[in-house]
Design a protein that fits this description.
GO terms for molecular function: 3-oxoacyl-[acyl-carrier-protein] reductase (NADPH) activity. The chain is α/β, with parallel strands linked by helices. Helices cover 46% and strands 18% of the residues. The two termini are 30 Å apart. The model has no long low-confidence stretch (mean pLDDT 96). Bound molecules: nicotinamide-adenine-dinucleotide.
């Protein structure tokens, strides 16, 4: 795939899936604008992209903050003279049971802050970055691509009321934007990874990890590069829009 001269924004580009996605796009010739909260990690991603022979700049911004997101996308649009793609990847987990009851006594429940913080990053952040990217793509008459990171948890998952709701919302936004933006030549897709080896999943208890590995026909967790490869596939396939690609090693068949 040739992405020479294309500028692609990756949120959460400091580590994990965001870093792998950015590096893979850079290897296909894209220039990268990376958004994250972690400057040290961002600097490492930029160095890796430069070693791969492409260009990257990083922007410290919180995807939940409307004015920061607006200013960041204006800056990126100016710095790179346009925006051709967005990978809406920044996301967090704050797992916990919704309600826990023993002997008729409610002993634990997910706090509103625990719920809202995940919705803020995983859903509102995706909305804000998607909106700003679309504005600049349309103004610049770019036939852009937006890819939103959902999850197989979008169907509902124990201990993930907040996360599952956010990731289901991401799919609803993906389809809505594909319908609204198609007339401007912008395609929108989503990826729903299964359990992939990153810092997000390193925190998992070993017994849980073993159980998940044994449930998958491929018998292992996924690798970040396997998700990055899927991003390139969506960029490459001009007939792809409004759909979700599940990459989960067969976990949810
Ligand atoms: P990660 O925790 O390794 O990286 C997430 C990045 O997002 C970090 O660099 C973090 O600093 C950044 N970030 C968090 N909040 C931010 C904010 N408010 N503003 C800007 N940046 C922020 O996670 P990951 O495993 O690489 O996951 C990336 C995406 O893929 C997430 O949306 C996640 O929900 C999704 N996902 C991951 C898995 C998995 O198994 N790893 C599975 C399904 C979906």
């Amino acid at each position: 795939m040739n992405l020479n001269g294309k500028t692609i924004v990756v949120t959460g580009g400091g580590q994990g899936l965001g870093r792998a996605i950015a590096l893979n796009l850079a290897k296909s010739g894209a220039k990268l604008a990376l958004i994250d909260l972690n400057e040290v990690q961002l600097q490492t991603t930029v160095s890796l992209i430069e070693e791969a022979g492409s260009q990257a700049k990083y922007y410290l911004a919180n995807v939940t903050n409307e004015s920061e997101v607006e200013a960041t996308f204006i800056k990126i649009n100016d710095d790179f003279s346009g925006i051709d793609g967005l990978i809406n990847n920044a996301g967090i987990l704050r797992d916990g049971m919704f309600v826990k009851a023993k002997d008729g006594v409610v002993s634990k429940k997910m706090s509103l802050d625990q719920f809202q913080s995940v919705i803020d990053v995983n859903l509102t952040g995706v909305f804000l970055c998607g909106r700003e990217a679309a504005v600049h793509m349309i103004e610049g008459k770019r036939k852009g691509v937006i890819i939103n990171m959902s999850s197989i948890a979008r169907g509902g998952n124990m201990g993930q009321t907040n996360y599952a709701a956010s990731k289901a919302g991401v799919v609803a936004m993906t389809v809505t934007w594909a319908r609204e933006l198609g007339r401007h030549g912008i395609r929108v897709g989503a990826i729903a990874p299964g359990v992939i080896r990153t810092a997000m999943t390193d925190a998992m208890k070993p017994e849980m990890r073993q159980r998940l590995e044994s449930m998958k026909p491929v018998g292992r967790l996924g690798e970040a590069d396997e998700i990055a490869h899927t991003v390139n596939y969506i960029f490459e396939n001009e007939f792809f829009t409004g759909r979700v690609v599940e990459i989960d090693g067969g976990l949810c068949m």
